[in-house]
Automatic annotation (TrEMBL):
Name used for this protein in its record: Gas vesicle protein
Domain of life: Bacteria
SUPFAM superfamilies named among the record's database cross-references: Apolipoprotein A-I (SSF58113)
PANTHER family (UniProt xref): GENERAL STRESS PROTEIN
InterPro entries for this protein: Desiccation-related_membrane, YtxH
Length: 125
């Protein structure tokens, strides 16, 4: 499950880096302040839209994987002994918990990036 945590962290870091690069690049561009702020706002909105889109795609993949694993576990569950049934329930619970954790991490990281960009925008006003 740590691979998924790393993926969320990498996605958040990439988005934060992209946002920072865009803001710095636009701040040092030789343009009027009003135009620069508009470009930063537009880029921030684009990055936010991309983050939301990526979150949706990732969330859908995780949901599909969860459904598939859960379905497989349920199918196998029918033929297992009582001891193995308990183990299968634990596996299904772990998968669900991991899904919830991964989803929450992506939402949190995306929100952090959006807040950072918005803070930078507010500082430019």
């Amino acid at each position: 499950m740590s691979k998924k945590s790393n993926s969320a962290a990498i996605l958040a870091a990439l988005l934060a880096g992209a946002a920072t690069g865009v803001v710095l690049g636009l701040l040092y561009a030789p343009e009027e302040g009003k135009e620069t702020r508009k470009k930063i706002r537009d880029k921030a909105n684009d990055l936010k839209d991309k983050a939301v889109d990526e979150y949706g795609k990732t969330s859908e993949k995780v949901r599909d994987t969860y459904s598939e694993v859960s379905s497989n576990v349920k199918d196998k569950y029918q033929s297992l002994s009582s001891h193995l049934k308990e183990t299968a329930q634990n596996v299904a619970s772990t998968v669900k918990d991991s899904y919830d954790k991964y989803k929450d991490q992506i939402v949190s990281k995306t929100s952090d990036v959006v807040k950072d960009v918005e803070t930078e925008l507010d500082g430019l006003k």
